[in-house]
Design a protein that fits this description.
single chain; alpha/beta; 7 helices; 42% helix; globular
Length: 242
């Protein structure tokens, strides 16, 4: 058999390159589609989004691995994250509005409801296969129900952006314990972890039309720059407005 000529080899290389591009595009689309509800691809250009208060709490992990709430860290993180979110809103290409303090208090239970629904989505949609729900058929199919309509009635918005973050940091005692135990061959996790959810909800139906989550051993909220990076990571693949 004669070896393939230059033209055939070139053709093979082109086909290989096209296959790689096709495969990459397909995988990227598949990843994006997991974040979107069936039939939802982008926001209407003139959509109005209300940004719900972010539910944030920071912890210090003790030498024994106990997560202890840190109020001063949480207060700072709320300020940094809110500032980052204010800057980010201008780049989303949509009209956005914040809740008044009174409305935020009145609607606090809906934020709690979102946290519960978000945990279910993370576990049953993005979690291991054994936790997948057959009734969902692999689709992002969750709702916050009718209560969210009140948000639309108070603000005139069509969608609401919810977010929830828990962030923990290993204390100096925890780090010292980790190092000491490593010297005698015992490995333990330092304990710092960042977990977060973000959901875009249709206020006319309660349906979660976009969702993203974070679960990582790095990141931060105790400095403005790290809070901005956390926000960017949480809003990865956020739907564009067209």
């Amino acid at each position: 058999m004669r070896p393939a000529g230059p033209l055939m080899r070139h053709g093979a290389l082109v086909l290989s390159a096209l296959f790689v591009v096709f495969l990459s595009t397909a995988l990227a689309h598949a990843a994006d589609s997991r974040n979107l509800a069936p039939g939802f691809e982008f926001l209407p250009k003139n959509a109005k989004i209300v940004v719900m208060p972010t539910d944030i709490e920071l912890f210090s992990v003790s030498a024994g691995g106990i997560a202890e709430p840190k109020a001063d860290w949480t207060d700072a993180a709320n300020r940094y994250f809110k500032a980052a979110l204010s800057k980010k809103k201008t780049g989303l290409g949509v009209d956005s509005v914040d809740l008044s303090e009174k409305d935020a208090d009145d609607l606090a239970e809906i934020n709690t409801l979102h946290a519960a629904i978000a945990r279910s989505i993370q576990a049953h949609h993005f979690g291991p296969g054994i936790l997948r729900l057959p009734t969902k058929d692999g689709k992002l199919d969750w709702s916050l129900g009718d209560p969210v309509r009140e948000i639309g009635q108070r603000t005139g918005a069509q969608y609401a952006l919810f977010s929830w973050i828990r962030d923990s940091y290993a204390s100096p005692e925890r780090i010292a314990a980790t190092i000491a135990l490593a010297f005698i061959g015992i490995g333990i996790a330092p304990g710092g972890m960042q977990q977060g959810y973000a959901s875009l909800v249709d206020l006319s139906t309660g349906r979660v039309v976009w969702f993203n989550h974070l679960m990582r051993g790095y990141g931060g909220l105790r400095e403005p720059e790290k809070a901005a990076e956390t926000l960017d990571a949480l809003l990865t693949n956020f739907p564009t407005a067209k």
